[in-house]
Amino acid sequence: MIYFPIELFLIAEPLQIYSPPVMAEVRFQKNSFSEYPQQIRSSTHPFAALYSRQSGYYAVHYKQPGTVAPGAILQLNEGAIAIFPGEPDEPENALGLATTTGTVGPIYTLQPGGSFAVPTGLVFIRFAQGVEVDTQREAIQNAGYEVAQSLSYAPNAAWLRTPSGSLLEALRGISRLESIPHVEAVEPQMLMPNTPR
């Protein structure tokens, strides 16, 4: 048996156990709308303003205007669209979405400036003067759209939507509309809050 003097243990420094440094918690920002375009041009004009997808907000498109939307930071189109902070799949928002009778979509901001803009799923198209929308219905259908509203005062222009009514399909297909011969303008309908002048 080996004996060590007790003084040796009292003088020696206590044994230290290595532990890795505390790391900051990394939280990746969730993006519920990553399948939507990050940027959308406001028109086919080469110097058109851009809309950029804004994370941290979402819109609920209600089927009935005037819907009460508790927690909304902004309502557009007579209450048919409400903008909420957060992500739609966060637990605190789940109850509100479960009781809504509408669809959820992304929020964009107009660049530069940052005003909220909500896509509606409608897309405006204008053909060259003398080219009527009625003569281009097949090309419009081949691009994945249908005429939602003809304009009697402008037979070369119309509002379009996808047959399914999908907001995602409407935004993704804009380039197909732009490639139709004789198209002069294609613009997604984006609702924005009124700003006093």
Automatic annotation (TrEMBL):
This is Uncharacterized protein. The lineage of its organism: Bacteria, Bacillati, Cyanobacteriota, Cyanophyceae, Coleofasciculales. It comes from Allocoleopsis franciscana PCC 7113.
